[in-house]
Amino acid sequence: MSDGGRGDATQVARLPPAHLHLLSGALSGLASCVVLQPLDLVKTRLQQGSPSTQQVRIVSAAVHVVKDDGILGLWRGTLPTIARNVPGVACYMFMLTRSRLWLSTLPQFAPRHPAASPSSGLTKQTALPKLTPTGDLLAGSISRTLVGFVLMPVTVLKTRMESSLYPRQGLIASFRTIWAPQQQTGQIAGVRALWSGFVPTALRDAPYAGLFVVFYERSKTIVGKIRIGDRDVPRGVRDGIAGSLGATLATLMTAPFDTLKTKRQLRPETYKTIWQSSVLIWQQRGFLGFFDGVSLRVARKAGSSAIAWSLYEGLIRRWALPPKT
């Protein structure tokens, strides 16, 4: 049967070794970081502003960055983004696969379809063990939260380097400013500063990651049923489309927590708790204030997920599947 046919859809594959998951995740994370950093930077600028400047349009914000820092200014914060996302995506992909493999051995999370049973391992349709929607939600949430906690200091560093509220500095100087701010009354410091915004980050990332895996797997199933002539949609295209759809839906559902996270990391002396921050945003901007920069985050997440998951699954699948005879 040809590669695009349905007859070998459940061809058994080997579970790739840990280093391949880490390498594939790192490469996919690096690609999305470099390509999509400008979207993340402009999103941060829109979320940082005071009430009087929140109406700035996306294009105007981007033009302002280029005017002040040149075209390369759109890639400000790329180094901490890479420092966070490359190991972060690598560890997340590895932990996600391992947690899904473990959950697939439990009856309550194992899929009921015999072709996707835990004993069948990986298949040509996926580089990940199959689970029920509840299992997907749990695996994604746990994996993302643990990785997010470990890499939280780098996330804070990235957010501040993208912002215009702080002087432009290198990684070491920016870290020192966060750890021990110089004569800035009200600024938190030390460990507390490096993990500022973790709670809203976890409230964003845990449901986002869980929902993404659920939407991603279901989107792959739907797109996989589409036929182009007498052939299936190419698997790389299918994975990219599914990644974009899953990221879009999950991002829209968790956008308020992203805004809270950014506010608390940039102005922790003003946005002190989740509740107080929520009240302040509501007073300043109303309901829409919780969705500042959401279109940019959707664009970035959809793009990064399309790149990351099509590359990741492609690399894993290429190794895992036995050669055709």
Automatic annotation (TrEMBL):
The keyword Transmembrane applies. GO terms for cellular component: mitochondrial inner membrane. It is a multi-pass membrane protein. It catalyses: glycine(in) = glycine(out). The keyword Cell membrane does not apply. GO terms for molecular function: glycine transmembrane transporter activity. It is found in: Membrane; Mitochondrion inner membrane. Belongs to the mitochondrial carrier (TC 2.A.29) family. SLC25A38 subfamily. Mitochondrial glycine transporter that imports glycine into the mitochondrial matrix. Plays an important role in providing glycine for the first enzymatic step in heme biosynthesis, the condensation of glycine with succinyl-CoA to produce 5-aminolevulinate (ALA) in the miochondrial matrix. This is Mitochondrial glycine transporter. The gene is Mo04753.
